């Protein structure tokens, strides 16, 4: 795969149709060939809405439209890198309209998609930004209300509106709305509950705690005239999930699964969107539920969440096949629709989040190479791995091909039928569903389901006769 100025644009590597070979891996890591020279190594990278942002050690930023791979914006910060320090982090909203740039010396800049001139965020000067929760409505003209998590435990609310006036601040306001004492804010995310449009939910992650806050937000006056989240944090008690009682030396992160791409979704939708929190030696993940009773929403989600222990991932092997005696921590995570992806010891390990089966385990980086980040495009569903010198796309093929089996094992028959492909899989679901209904004594319902299966008529009839179920027997005659 190449990002080359051919005029043909970029086609995301995806895989397969319904007839794909089940022996083929669901994931395939492909190195991207850049058809232009680079004068320095990468120090940060982000992808959103098919827009790739690369920050170089020289302070330059490359903005590449993957739909037009020859369209590359070459952008410089307004100050020399010797004055700002190297670029430390990039934060790109899901629509790729808004980019926040953080440097090692605490300089922060904002760049709108229609501009090539980053503007200083004077009110955030000195803030080491660790995470950003973009506005759930994904506005493009301004950021509207966003949350910014800092290395010192502060959570700020900000409203950034692009301005061409040199002396005008880009921020309408910046206000600290929460302060946590247990380390940096490694992740923050906000959304609007579908069932309650006046209610916001916020996830806040530190290395040791995951907080879930839900409640009404304040709105007074016109847009941008007042802080939205302050009352939420003041009035609502968070649901707190604690991480392992271990030193916080390992990386920590909070990620959300991308928007569901075309194809099947679960009939009850509770599997459609997920969160994952990397904390020390574990990854805790779960579905983003939506309930009318918000008072139990946080506890219900946390109680239903699952854990992947670092020990579940097999140790790496040397070239001679010997297993490594020690295990390095997971350094990055990402979510696809159905899998948790972990970057550990130079490997990409993909784990099905329903069954916790490891479906992919491949060494990508050898030696002492490290990754800058593992990133999911929230809009397009593509997955990317970045190092200081290389870009990899993690192509996804036929990801939901085995979901029907998992649903069937969990006796979620309607969902299993929705994901089943072809007559043989649908027949297996109908047969198992009928057998289950018989065991529960629901013979009339079983008769209806058996009618859609290939189970022998004689066997079904004998089952109803043995249980003296004449009504069910008449139903299949």
Could you outline the blueprint of secondary structure elements for this entry?
Blueprint: E1 2-3, E2 27-31, E3 33-34, E4 42-48, E5 51-56, E6 60-65, E7 72-76, H1 81-84, E8 87-92, E9 98-103, E10 108-112, E11 119-120, E12 129-133, E13 144-150, E14 154-160, E15 171-179, E16 187-193, E17 196-205, E18 209-216, H2 230-235, E19 239-242, E20 253-256, E21 274-279, E22 282-287, H3 297-304, E23 306-309, E24 332-335, E25 339-344, E26 347-352, E27 358-363, E28 373-376, E29 383-386, E30 391-396, H4 403-409, H5 413-419, H6 422-439, H7 443-450, H8 457-466, H9 470-476
Parallel strand pairs: 1-3
Antiparallel strand pairs: 2-30, 4-5, 5-6, 6-7, 8-9, 9-10, 10-11, 12-13, 13-14, 14-15, 16-17, 17-18, 18-19, 20-21, 21-22, 22-23, 24-25, 25-26, 26-27, 28-29, 29-30
Tell me what the structure shows.
The structure is a single chain. The protein is α+β, with helices and mostly antiparallel strands and 477 residues long. It contains 9 helices and 30 strands. The protein has helices spanning 81-84, 230-235, 297-304, 403-409, 413-419, 422-439, 443-450, 457-466, 470-476, and strands at 2-3, 27-31, 33-34, 42-48, 51-56, 60-65, 72-76, 87-92, 98-103, 108-112, 119-120, 129-133, 144-150, 154-160, 171-179, 187-193, 196-205, 209-216, 239-242, 253-256, 274-279, 282-287, 306-309, 332-335, 339-344, 347-352, 358-363, 373-376, 383-386, 391-396. The strands form 8 sheets. The protein has a 4-stranded antiparallel sheet, with no helix packed on it. A 4-stranded antiparallel sheet has the order 4-5-6-7, with no helix packed on it. The longest helix is centred in the C-terminal third of the chain and has 18 residues, at 422-439. The protein starts with a strand and ends with a helix. The model is unreliable at 4-19 (pLDDT under 50).
């Amino acid at each position: 795969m190449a990002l080359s100025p051919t005029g043909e644009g970029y086609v995301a590597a995806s895989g397969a149709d319904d007839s794909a070979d089940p022996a083929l891996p669901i994931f395939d890591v492909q190195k991207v060939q850049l058809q232009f020279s680079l004068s320095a190594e990468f120090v940060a990278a982000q992808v959103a809405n098919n827009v790739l942002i690369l920050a170089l050690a020289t302070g330059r930023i490359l903005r590449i439209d993957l739909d037009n791979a020859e369209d590359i914006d070459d952008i410089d910060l307004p100050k020399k890198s010797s004055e700002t320090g190297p670029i430390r982090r990039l934060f790109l909203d899901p629509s790729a309209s808004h980019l926040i740039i953080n440097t090692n010396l605490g300089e922060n800049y904002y760049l709108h998609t229609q501009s090539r001139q980053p503007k200083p965020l004077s009110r955030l000067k000195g803030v080491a930004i660790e995470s950003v929760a973009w506005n759930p409505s994904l506005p493009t003209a301004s950021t509207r209300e966003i949350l910014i998590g800092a290395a010192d435990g502060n959570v700020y609310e900000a409203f950034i509106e692009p301005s061409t006036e040199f002396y005008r601040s880009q921020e309408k306001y910046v206000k600290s709305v929460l302060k946590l004492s247990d380390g940096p804010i490694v992740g923050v995310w906000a959304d609007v509950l579908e069932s309650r449009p006046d209610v916001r939910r916020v996830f806040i992650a530190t290395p040791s705690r995951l907080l879930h806050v839900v409640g009404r937000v304040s709105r007074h006056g016109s847009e941008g005239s007042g802080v939205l989240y302050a009352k939420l944090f003041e009035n609502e008690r968070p649901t707190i999930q604690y991480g392992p009682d271990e030193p916080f030396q390992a990386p920590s992160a909070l990620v959300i699964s991308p928007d569901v791409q075309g194809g099947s979704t679960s009939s009850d939708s509770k599997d459609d969107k997920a969160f994952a929190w990397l904390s020390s030696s574990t990854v805790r993940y779960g579905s983003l539920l939506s309930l009318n009773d918000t008072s139990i929403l946080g506890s219900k989600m946390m109680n239903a969440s699952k854990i992947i222990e670092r020990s579940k991932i097999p140790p790496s092997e040397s070239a001679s096949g010997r297993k490594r005696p020690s295990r390095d921590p997971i350094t990055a995570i990402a979510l696809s629709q159905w899998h948790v992806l972990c970057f550990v010891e130079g490997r990409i390990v993909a784990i099905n989040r329903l069954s916790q089966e490891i479906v992919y385990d491949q060494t990508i980086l050898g030696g002492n190479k490290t990754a800058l980040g593992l990133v999911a495009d929230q809009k397009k569903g593509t997955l990317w791995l970045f190092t200081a010198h290389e870009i990899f796309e993690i192509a996804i093929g036929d990801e939901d091909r085995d979901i029907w089996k998992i649903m069937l094992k969990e006796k979620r028959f309607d969902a299993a039928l929705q994901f089943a492909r072809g007559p043989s899989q649908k027949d297996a679901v109908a047969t198992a569903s009928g057998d289950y209904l018989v065991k529960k004594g629901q013979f009339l319902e079983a008769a209806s389901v058996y009618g859609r299966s290939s189970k022998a008529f004689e066997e079904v009839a004998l089952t109803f006769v043995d249980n003296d179920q004449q009504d069910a027997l008449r139903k299949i005659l």
